[in-house]
Amino acid sequence: MYEIDDPDAQKEKCYTTIGKLPPFVDVQQPPVKKSPFSSISKHPFVHSTELILPKEIYDAAWDSISSQIQAPQYAKVIMPLSALLEHDFFNTYIKTGNILLISEGRSGVDNVYTLKDGVLRLELDKNSYERAGLDGKPIRSGGRKHVKDRYAVEINLRLPSMLHGKKGFERIIWAFNNALIASVTWLFCDLTKSPSYSEEEAPIRKHHPQIIQCAPNVEPLGTLMVPPLYLSDLQTDAGREFLHETCGEIQEWLGLAFLNSPRVHENDTIDPYLSRYALPDHDECVKTDLVKISWKGLLPSVWITQLFTATLRQFNSSSSSPGVWFALTSYALGREAVESKDGYTILSSPLNKEPTKELPSESSESEERPQRQFICWEYVGGSSYS
After folding, report:
1. Parallel/antiparallel/unpaired status of strands 150-156 and 184-190
2. pLDDT digits over 238-284, tens only?
3. 342 lies in which domain range?
4. Given strand 373-380, what is the order of strands in its sheet?
5. Of 54, 152, 181, 375, which sits with the fewest C-beta atoms within 10 Å of its C-beta?
């Protein structure tokens, strides 16, 4: 019997990256092409982000960190696809501005639309695709492997040819006015430095947007047992063995810490018959008071990069203790039915225990400044049906 199901539909993967964080990061120009910043940029649509810090760092430095980032906000609107191509909206937000748009619906089941960097992506079922008459390509839907029943259409609306009156552009307008006419609920985020949602001249105002502010929720986690998070052993011959045995343990512990599970608390007395989880390197665990800060809503990757950069700069400052660490995790809105990008977790580890060698040249002191290491886990899901 031939295999007709998509084999990737039931697979879940985790890609692990280990490296060194830069000793200095420019807030205006972060290295978005280098990990872990590239992992943040790969997930433009995030619905929640959480940050864990030691309580002593939160008390001493959180006001300074929060002052360097803007409070995220977005809008919820109901409008058809054709509204995107109206003169004011199109020229203000797409041609000259920068926005994020994501529609309601489930990938692989409904017609869903996204807009990022001026590129409009339409995921359509076969009937809608044929009625629209736009150029696209078949995509996997998580169902039968060789049946083409879902299609993706990508339109770069910032091309010079995308102007009212041009033949190709008028074809898109016709498809939106005659085939894809249903009004849908969108999440709208203006990425400009001074976004405007409710001003009189804002084109989005005619659609009566519901403006939503993403306020941080601060949750003290209490005293947790923190295992050793130093990554110095990666420099030795046992690095590969450490990678397989320890990275998984650290990832599991971080997952329980973000959930505030009793299994990682100081006074946990669970019966081993009910839970077989054991803290990694229990004898070396340190009792630490932790704080979790979380945001929920449409959080763009640009804002998360600002949050990560501001936190990293604070930890790299001379006033910061070398033994401190922080972890950030984000959960993405998957936009692919198969192998969707589900999110990531980034751990900035403490500085290595080994003392650094002093160099005779003072001019090279800044160049030999110790760098923190990081582990980045990227999660890729299976099918949206599972």
Report:
1. unpaired
2. 566 667 778 889 999 999 999 999 999 988 888 888 888 888 888 88
3. 7-71+216-352+368-380
4. 13-20, 373-380, 341-348, 326-332, 46-54, 286-299, 217-226
5. 181
